[in-house]
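A.,

Following up on our hallway conversation. Structure tokens first:
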């Protein structure tokens, strides 16, 4: 009530000036209303500007989300494609580059090259569409010359293009893999004899077996034992070996045992004359010699 009185002023006591006071009061009320309406308009304008700004920001945010959604879709597609070609996660280890193939007609060299390239594709996550071109980069010498000629024949003679890794692998084998590899290996096996150390014999025998695919286990064991020197054969039979892996492992131990005996014999001092040391050296060469 006190605030109303302060806003309207003192109430006139005389009747003559009531009309004047009422008019003045109406003017004050109108001024207050105008001021309030002005404030309302100001707030409405600010509110409209705020709504416009917020709508603009919302639209920008939606566009940004849409852009992120497209990027995520592309990334997801790439990851799925990588997973389809290789289920394993990409490795951070640096993948060593395979050694090139120079066209040497050697079965082991070609098979090793193809194996290394295959492992490289897997470790480096090479897409199927790039395997042929990448393999051609590791062909050197006669192999590179063959590849260039093959590409020229595609154009001049209308030969089909090599577009898949399996096709390229087959043509490399047809071109550079000897057709008589197994036969040559069998001929070499017939001539193989234990002339040096047992380890050298085991290594050469194992290398030949890689080129002979259809030999039975019994024949492998027979050929291995037949090429050994007599003392080695007797020691292995004494140990009761029955299969090739066990025989080759026992032969490795026998080699170390035999070489150790020979070295210890040659290093024996001849203080009591050479006859005793010589006799011990001869005894060490007998089958079944023990320390």
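Then the amino acids I'd put at each of the 291 positions:
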């Amino acid at each position: 009530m006190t605030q109303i009185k302060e806003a309207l002023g003192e109430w006139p006591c005389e009747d003559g000036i009531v009309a004047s006071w009422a008019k003045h009061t109406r003017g004050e009320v109108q001024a207050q209303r105008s001021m309030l309406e002005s404030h309302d308009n100001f707030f409405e304008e600010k509110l409209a500007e705020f709504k416009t700004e917020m709508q603009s920001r919302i639209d920008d945010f939606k566009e940004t989300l849409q852009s992120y959604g497209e990027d995520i879709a592309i990334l997801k597609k790439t990851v799925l494609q990588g997973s389809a070609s290789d289920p394993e996660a990409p490795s951070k280890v640096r993948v060593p580059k395979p050694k090139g193939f120079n066209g040497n007609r050697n079965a082991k060299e070609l098979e090793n090259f193809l194996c290394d390239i295959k492992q490289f594709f897997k470790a480096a996550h090479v897409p199927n569409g790039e395997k042929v071109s990448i393999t051609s980069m590791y062909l050197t010498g006669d192999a590179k010359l063959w590849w260039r000629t093959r590409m020229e024949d595609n154009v001049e003679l209308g030969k089909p293009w090599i577009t898949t890794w399996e096709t390229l692998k087959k043509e490399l084998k047809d071109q550079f893999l000897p057709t008589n590899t197994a036969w040559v290996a069998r001929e070499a096996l017939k001539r193989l004899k234990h002339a040096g150390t047992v380890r050298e014999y085991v290594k050469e025998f194992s290398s030949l077996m890689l080129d002979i695919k259809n030999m039975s286990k019994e024949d492998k064991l027979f050929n291995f034992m037949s090429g050994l020197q007599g003392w080695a054969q007797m020691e292995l039979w004494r140990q009761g070996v029955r299969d090739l892996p066990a025989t080759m492992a026992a032969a490795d131990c026998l080699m170390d045992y035999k070489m150790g005996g020979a070295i210890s014999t040659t290093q024996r001092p001849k203080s009591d004359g050479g006859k005793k040391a010589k006799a011990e050296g001869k005894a060490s060469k007998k089958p079944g010699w023990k320390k």
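Confidence is low (pLDDT under 50) at residues 260-280, 282-291. Curious whether your intuition agrees with the design.

B.
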